[in-house]
Design brief:
507 residues; alpha/beta; VC0802-like; Rossmann fold; 3 domains; 8-stranded mixed beta sheet; 7-stranded mixed beta sheet; 44% helix; globular; binds S-adenosylmethionine
């Protein structure tokens, strides 16, 4: 019987949910208001539908009217109507009047525990100072959520990249990269006079390079490296994801010092379990425990400057603190994108694989948004960058990204098929390219396209010149003029290709 009633209410809600705002707010709401309590209760789904439909397409001019109707329903004698009104208010968002009405409900009518929970849930979303003052009446989670959202609105937090990281004993750094690129990350670090002095290579496993600091450093020092994707400071290792241990790690004194020193504004972090999915219960438990231990460190899923991530690491798990840098300051030239744009750190690895002969003329036949060209240009030793792409939009995007990169180097772009770009034989010293892979956009004859790229490279490269490209074919390419020099299997974001370097031999 109870189930049948619940299903009928759900069905009614689904029907109402499909109506337009005008259809709901006209006769239906008037009838609801004038109905007796029994039929109001049967039509409680209307309250829920009004909240959802208004939040999606309601006119702002009716906001106050709708909010005031919902607030009046907080006093309804039917629990379900009150509950739906509570859920709808945060969706439409009018602010302190709603907060006051919810607090009044909590204090004056002393609702049962179950209803208190719903009030708290609504206050989680719209509560402010008045809610914080009531902290004792509400679950700790409400105070945490309200504090975090007030902090977020008052002053956006950020990461202080140039502050010296307070190094604590055992601190390690994890640089994550696409699988197969670990040796690039390691070599770039060791070859860099600045990073090589500050960090020591410790270990490497697929998709990860571990460093230890030799002395004081800043996050900017790490961001002088371009081949890794994300960086994180390892707070510790645990046998399995356990709420108490993780909360203790986040709030341990050295970590608090680290948060304090490197955060501008309120300290807010998001919890992530990249290999385990959402873990909502665990997140709530860790967040509440950490808040109880240190109320200045706030869990906040929205635009938090830090992520605390729990990663599998051999038979254990590491708890890591990752600055959420979006956009990544290393690639801030990337103003615009093409649909199949390269992963910027991969472009940086490819540029390094090509090396710098001092006076390079570099061509990317499939330049897209221009990342390989720009990364190669930033390494120096380039006299000219050439880009071709059959998409006019891609050429424009390449040009604007190049301009944003601040590179002062001669450039030339060709809009059309790379085979018609009119590049002269023996005129190019480096071809660096990430060709279409046929994944997102189907390519009718991928083998033919890659074969043509190979033949073209053999013709236009100068003796000693290099072709560096991500090869999507599993068959080996062959041309007597090009010698395979390096071949590395890499993950291109869910599928593997080979990153290859060929050298044009003297003939
Ligand atoms: C994988 S994307 C390149 C991404 C690029 N490296 C970047 O940084 O954004 C491949 C590009 O090749 C272009 N393309 C496909 N076939 C082509 C052809 N025959 N000639 C020239 N460009 C082509 C597409 O328009 C696309 O922009």
């Amino acid at each position: 019987m109870k189930n049948a009633r619940a299903n009928a209410a759900k069905d009614l809600y689904k029907q109402l949910r499909r109506l337009t705002w005008e259809e709901l707010w006209g006769k239906l709401v008037t009838d609801f208001n004038n109905a007796d309590q029994v039929s109001r209760s049967q039509n409680a789904g209307l309250v829920r539908a009004v909240g959802v439909v208004f939040s999606e397409s309601g006119p702002q001019s009716r906001l106050n009217e709708v909010a005031s109707w919902l607030r009046s329903l907080l006093k309804d004698s039917d629990e379900k109507i009150r509950r739906y009104a509570m859920a709808a208010l945060p969706k439409i968002g009018t602010g302190s009047a709603d907060e006051e009405a919810l607090i009044e409900l909590l204090l004056k009518s002393n609702p049962p525990e179950r209803e208190k929970k719903y009030v708290a849930r609504a206050l989680d979303k719209i509560g402010g100072k008045a809610t914080l003052e009531l902290a004792e009446e509400l679950p700790a989670q409400t105070a945490l959520k309200v504090k975090a959202s007030m902090a977020r609105e008052e002053s956006p937090s950020g990461i202080l990249l140039n502050e010296v990281v307070p190094v604590f004993s055992g601190l390690r750094i994890h640089l994550r990269c696409r699988r197969g690129l670990e040796s690039f990350v390691r070599q770039e670090m060791q070859a860099s006079p600045q990073a090589g002095r500050l960090f020591e290579f410790k270990d490497s496993r697929p998709g990860l390079v571990e460093l230890v600091p030799r002395c004081a450093f800043t996050l900017s020092d790490l961001l002088s490296l371009r081949c890794f994707a994300t960086l994180a400071l390892v707070l510790g290792t645990i046998p399995k994801p356990d709420a108490r241990e993780i909360a203790e790690m986040i709030t341990a004194s050295p970590v608090r010092g680290l948060f304090k020193k490197l955060t501008q504004g309120a300290i807010r972090y998001r919890l992530e379990f990249p290999s385990l999915g959402h873990q909502r219960g665990l997140v709530r438990d860790i967040a509440n425990r950490a808040y109880a231990m240190c109320p200045d460190i706030l869990n906040d899923a929205r635009s938090a400057p830090w992520a605390v991530e729990v990663h599998p690491h051999g038979r254990h798990f590491t708890v890591e603190l990752r600055p959420r840098l979006s956009p990544d300051p290393r690639f801030s030239y990337r103003r615009l994108d093409v649909p199949a744009a390269s992963h910027p750190p991969l472009a940086a690895c490819m540029a390094r694989l090509a090396e710098d002969s001092g006076r390079d003329v570099v061509w990317d036949p499939f330049c897209g948004s221009g990342l390989e060209l720009i990364e190669r240009g930033l390494l120096g030793g380039v006299v000219k960058l050439l880009g071709s792409d059959q998409s006019a939009a891609a050429i424009d995007i390449s040009k604007s990204n190049l301009a944003a990169s601040g590179l002062r180097v001669k450039t030339d772009f060709f809009h059309g098929d790379f085979r018609n770009a009119g590049v002269a034989p023996n005129s190019i010293s480096q071809i660096i390219t990430n060709p279409p892979m046929g994944r997102r956009v189907p390519i009718p004859n991928l083998a033919g396209l890659i074969g043509d790229l190979f033949q073209t490279a053999a013709r236009v490269l100068q003796p000693g010149g290099v072709l560096v490209f991500a090869n999507p074919l599993s068959t080996r390419l062959s041309d007597l003029r090009l010698k395979l020099d390096i071949r590395q299997r890499i993950d291109l974001g869910g599928f593997d290709v080979h990153l290859e370097r060929y050298i044009k031999i003297h003939r």
